[in-house]
Design brief:
With 174 residues, this protein is mostly helical. Helix content is 52%, strand content 0%. Helix 2 packs parallel to helix 4 and helix 8 packs parallel to helix 10.
Length: 174
Amino acid sequence: MDLFLTARLKPAKDFLSIIRPEDAQKVDAKGHGLLPRALANHDLPSRYSLGHFLLDQGAPITAGDGGATVLHVLFGQVSHDVGEDARIARRLIDAGANFNARDENGRVPFLEVLNMKYSDEDLNPIYDLWFEREDADFTSVSVHGVSPISFAKKLPFRGAVVDRMESYVRAHSR
Protein backbone atom coordinates (compact mmCIF):
# COMPACT_ATOMS: atom_id res chain seq x y z
CA MET A 1 0.00 0.00 0.00
CA ASP A 2 1.04 3.57 -0.69
CA LEU A 3 2.83 5.37 2.18
CA PHE A 4 0.31 8.25 2.15
CA LEU A 5 -2.69 5.92 2.30
CA THR A 6 -1.05 3.88 5.03
CA ALA A 7 -0.54 7.02 7.13
CA ARG A 8 -4.21 7.89 6.68
CA LEU A 9 -5.90 4.51 6.89
CA LYS A 10 -3.77 1.99 8.75
CA PRO A 11 -2.56 1.51 12.31
CA ALA A 12 0.71 3.16 13.27
CA LYS A 13 2.53 -0.18 13.37
CA ASP A 14 1.80 -0.74 9.67
CA PHE A 15 3.10 2.71 8.73
CA LEU A 16 6.18 2.42 10.92
CA SER A 17 7.01 -0.95 9.36
CA ILE A 18 7.36 0.56 5.87
CA ILE A 19 8.65 4.11 6.37
CA ARG A 20 12.33 4.85 5.84
CA PRO A 21 14.03 7.87 7.48
CA GLU A 22 14.07 9.90 4.25
CA ASP A 23 10.36 9.24 3.61
CA ALA A 24 9.21 11.73 6.27
CA GLN A 25 10.08 14.56 3.86
CA LYS A 26 8.00 13.19 0.98
CA VAL A 27 5.11 15.07 -0.58
CA ASP A 28 2.56 13.68 -3.01
CA ALA A 29 1.81 15.00 -6.51
CA LYS A 30 -0.37 17.77 -5.03
CA GLY A 31 2.38 18.89 -2.63
CA HIS A 32 0.72 17.38 0.44
CA GLY A 33 3.02 15.79 2.99
CA LEU A 34 2.52 12.80 5.22
CA LEU A 35 1.61 14.85 8.29
CA PRO A 36 -1.89 15.91 7.17
CA ARG A 37 -2.61 12.32 6.16
CA ALA A 38 -1.48 10.96 9.54
CA LEU A 39 -3.55 13.58 11.40
CA ALA A 40 -6.63 12.38 9.53
CA ASN A 41 -6.16 8.79 10.73
CA HIS A 42 -9.37 7.66 12.43
CA ASP A 43 -7.52 5.51 14.97
CA LEU A 44 -6.72 7.95 17.79
CA PRO A 45 -3.56 6.26 19.11
CA SER A 46 -2.24 6.00 15.55
CA ARG A 47 -3.15 9.61 14.76
CA TYR A 48 -1.15 10.92 17.69
CA SER A 49 1.78 8.53 17.54
CA LEU A 50 2.23 9.10 13.79
CA GLY A 51 1.83 12.85 14.18
CA HIS A 52 4.48 12.99 16.89
CA PHE A 53 6.74 10.61 14.97
CA LEU A 54 6.54 12.68 11.80
CA LEU A 55 7.16 15.91 13.71
CA ASP A 56 10.19 14.26 15.35
CA GLN A 57 11.43 13.39 11.85
CA GLY A 58 11.03 16.99 10.65
CA ALA A 59 8.16 16.25 8.26
CA PRO A 60 7.01 19.35 6.39
CA ILE A 61 3.96 21.23 7.68
CA THR A 62 2.06 21.13 4.40
CA ALA A 63 -1.57 21.77 3.61
CA GLY A 64 -4.11 19.08 2.98
CA ASP A 65 -6.99 18.94 0.54
CA GLY A 66 -8.99 22.14 0.03
CA GLY A 67 -6.23 24.27 1.49
CA ALA A 68 -6.87 22.78 4.92
CA THR A 69 -3.87 23.20 7.18
CA VAL A 70 -2.67 20.51 9.54
CA LEU A 71 -4.68 22.27 12.26
CA HIS A 72 -7.86 22.17 10.16
CA VAL A 73 -7.24 18.46 9.58
CA LEU A 74 -6.50 17.66 13.22
CA PHE A 75 -9.49 19.50 14.66
CA GLY A 76 -11.84 18.55 11.81
CA GLN A 77 -11.90 14.86 12.75
CA VAL A 78 -14.93 13.27 14.42
CA SER A 79 -13.20 11.64 17.39
CA HIS A 80 -10.69 13.33 19.65
CA ASP A 81 -8.63 13.11 22.78
CA VAL A 82 -8.64 16.79 23.74
CA GLY A 83 -5.43 16.58 25.78
CA GLU A 84 -3.57 14.87 22.94
CA ASP A 85 -5.04 17.30 20.40
CA ALA A 86 -3.71 20.20 22.49
CA ARG A 87 -0.25 18.63 22.83
CA ILE A 88 0.18 17.87 19.16
CA ALA A 89 -1.38 21.20 18.10
CA ARG A 90 1.17 23.04 20.25
CA ARG A 91 3.96 21.11 18.55
CA LEU A 92 2.48 21.88 15.13
CA ILE A 93 2.24 25.60 15.91
CA ASP A 94 5.78 25.60 17.34
CA ALA A 95 6.94 23.90 14.12
CA GLY A 96 5.34 26.62 11.97
CA ALA A 97 1.68 25.70 11.47
CA ASN A 98 -0.28 28.92 11.01
CA PHE A 99 -3.14 28.97 13.53
CA ASN A 100 -4.81 31.81 11.57
CA ALA A 101 -4.50 30.25 8.11
CA ARG A 102 -7.63 30.09 6.01
CA ASP A 103 -8.67 27.12 3.94
CA GLU A 104 -10.08 27.66 0.43
CA ASN A 105 -13.42 28.64 2.01
CA GLY A 106 -11.81 31.25 4.24
CA ARG A 107 -12.32 29.17 7.38
CA VAL A 108 -9.73 29.48 10.16
CA PRO A 109 -8.88 26.34 12.21
CA PHE A 110 -10.61 27.75 15.30
CA LEU A 111 -13.95 27.14 13.57
CA GLU A 112 -13.12 23.41 13.58
CA VAL A 113 -12.39 23.59 17.30
CA LEU A 114 -15.72 25.30 18.00
CA ASN A 115 -17.48 22.53 16.11
CA MET A 116 -16.01 19.79 18.31
CA LYS A 117 -18.55 17.96 20.49
CA TYR A 118 -17.03 18.92 23.85
CA SER A 119 -17.84 21.57 26.42
CA ASP A 120 -15.97 24.87 26.59
CA GLU A 121 -14.42 23.66 29.84
CA ASP A 122 -13.15 20.49 28.15
CA LEU A 123 -11.78 22.48 25.21
CA ASN A 124 -9.90 25.04 27.32
CA PRO A 125 -6.49 23.39 26.70
CA ILE A 126 -7.06 23.88 22.96
CA TYR A 127 -8.64 27.33 23.30
CA ASP A 128 -5.61 28.44 25.30
CA LEU A 129 -3.39 27.84 22.26
CA TRP A 130 -5.16 30.79 20.60
CA PHE A 131 -5.75 33.02 23.62
CA GLU A 132 -2.09 32.97 24.65
CA ARG A 133 -1.09 34.54 21.33
CA GLU A 134 -1.18 38.22 20.43
CA ASP A 135 -2.58 37.81 16.92
CA ALA A 136 -5.37 35.21 17.11
CA ASP A 137 -8.07 35.82 14.50
CA PHE A 138 -11.61 35.43 15.80
CA THR A 139 -13.28 37.90 13.43
CA SER A 140 -12.34 36.91 9.86
CA VAL A 141 -15.40 35.92 7.92
CA SER A 142 -15.40 32.84 5.68
CA VAL A 143 -16.93 32.80 2.20
CA HIS A 144 -20.05 31.50 3.95
CA GLY A 145 -20.28 34.62 6.11
CA VAL A 146 -19.12 32.97 9.33
CA SER A 147 -16.42 34.11 11.76
CA PRO A 148 -15.44 32.20 14.90
CA ILE A 149 -17.31 34.69 17.08
CA SER A 150 -20.49 34.69 14.97
CA PHE A 151 -20.44 30.89 14.75
CA ALA A 152 -19.96 30.43 18.51
CA LYS A 153 -22.80 32.88 19.24
CA LYS A 154 -25.17 30.57 17.35
CA LEU A 155 -24.26 27.63 19.59
CA PRO A 156 -25.99 27.59 22.99
CA PHE A 157 -23.10 25.68 24.61
CA ARG A 158 -20.32 28.09 23.58
CA GLY A 159 -21.14 31.04 25.85
CA ALA A 160 -17.89 30.89 27.83
CA VAL A 161 -15.67 30.99 24.76
CA VAL A 162 -17.78 33.77 23.20
CA ASP A 163 -17.05 35.87 26.28
CA ARG A 164 -13.34 35.05 26.01
CA MET A 165 -13.22 35.88 22.27
CA GLU A 166 -15.06 39.18 22.71
CA SER A 167 -12.78 40.17 25.58
CA TYR A 168 -9.70 39.16 23.55
CA VAL A 169 -10.83 41.19 20.51
CA ARG A 170 -11.49 44.26 22.67
CA ALA A 171 -8.08 43.96 24.33
CA HIS A 172 -6.18 43.42 21.08
CA SER A 173 -7.93 45.86 18.75
CA ARG A 174 -6.33 49.00 20.13
